[in-house]
Amino acid sequence: MQQELRIAASVLAADFSCLGEEVRAVSDAGADWLHVDVMDGHFVPNLTIGAGVVAALRPHTTHTFDVHLMVSPVDPYVEPFAEAGADSITVHVEAGAHLHRTLQRIKSAGKRAGVALNPATPAHAVEPVLGDVDLVLVMSVNPGFGGQRFIPSQLGKIEALRALIDASGRAIDLSVDGGIDEHTAGLATRAGADVLVAGSASFAGGRAEYPGNIARLRAAGEAGRTASHGTRTGPRAIGAATS
Ligand code: DX5
Ligand code: ZN
User: Fold this and answer.
1) Whole-structure pTM over 0.90, yes or no?
2) Does ligand 1 have an atom closer than 6 angstroms to the CB of 179?
3) Helical residues (DSSP H) of 34-91, grouped into ranges
């Protein structure tokens, strides 16, 4: 079933010299969640932050910490991020051979469990674990960097996952991550996403702009949901919208 729309500000695009202030500012600006990208320089070609940084940021907001682990192997990092203050922990289908075991580990740590799909991974890869997850995250760029362009082919995957989630009858969040801005937000929600992860678009222009940035993303996302009412055959104008 589809949930209310949430905007998850990805701190990857924040000013790293003052992350605590940035997290406070974007929380006050109306973001619903803080999305935290953890990269290991192995599963993805970039290094970002560890559990210690999440622990340091935890006192700066009461908002949900939506931790996205782009890490392999991932199992040794579940408990450290849980203890650091993550509310949900999302792992990649492609990161290891024992996804079900990893999800059980996240649940055992008392956290919401998420599964992420790279652009080349099909929707049906999550079907066997749908009963074990609270969130499915569709990567709409290749993971590793912020500021990339939205990959239009992922809209069909969002539609397929929306149908799988609805058929499951479970309250699973459907999140889309990468290249989300005022133009692509509505396409993603029209296809069925109910969480929009946005880095560059949330943190653009300095702190005075954050409230407007979040409000525009939310308005665009809500407009896409309205457009999807009744039918979900929508995202056909994507070529024009993303060119
Ligand atoms: C990419 C990360 C994203 C990233 C999105 O690997 O998973 O969360 O921060 O950045 P933008 O919104 O700039 O595409
Ligand atoms: Zn992410």
Assistant:
1) yes
2) yes
3) 51-57, 75-84
